[in-house]
Amino acid sequence: MRKLLLVMVLAAVAAALGCWRAAEPSTAAVSEDGEPMESKEGTKHAWIYFTNNHDKGGDSPYNTDCVATVVAERIGAQMGSTKAAGTKIIWHLRLSNGVNDDDRCPTLDTSKVYLEFATDVMGSAAGKKLKAMGMKIEGTVSSSKSDIGAIIDHKYQVKYDDGTPMGMAAGPDPVVVVGCSSCGEPPEK
After folding, report:
1. Please, are residues 112 and 93 in contact by the beta-carbon 8 Å criterion?
2. Which of 97, 107, 120, 138 has the fewest CB atoms in 10 Å of its CB?
3. DSSP code, position 98
4. Plot region of 64 (φ>0 → left; ψ -120 to 50 → alpha; else → beta)
């Protein structure tokens, strides 16, 4: 019985030691070269990967050449104040699946990519749209209560400008969560 107990204790210790790792630096934000970069205070990063739509016009809900996947389904953010801007969010555009170039979408014109918001979470001046500039889309959460309202989840969708007023949906509808307890520090006062 003692041997069994000893074996069980040693197995538990070995399992615990196998899970232990030294602290690693955060790699939440990555440069164009794939190198880790520091996220500045009040800034959040997200990635949008575009891959080939292998079923355009078929059963795919997206009729675009490329389908967008936003890596951060829910981005926590804080509203700005009269003394500080709200959380700045930078969406990095990538023309691959994130691991390799399988299903790469080389035909995508990133100048036609934009995010369309259901609310004025990025400020009424943005007109509920943020356009890509190069390989990024940047926006800052509004400081106005009238833009944010009582809503916590602010839905948006990746779209592609096909020349029509509505644009074409290129991916599902993720969320910017404003004012949650785990959304990060509020702006400096």
Report:
1. no
2. 107
3. S
4. beta
pTM greater than 0.70 (yes/no): yes
**Residue 85 vs residues 61, 76, 165, 183, 186: alpha-carbon distances, Å:** 36, 15, 31, 15, 10
What is the tens place of the pLDDT at every residue in 160-184?
998 887 888 888 878 888 987 777 7
Whose tokens are 């009040």? That residue is 42
Structure tokens at 1: 């019985």
Ordered by where they begin, the domains of the chain are 39-178 (2.60.40)
d(CA 167, CA 155): 17
Residue 115 near residue 93, CB atoms below 8 Å = no
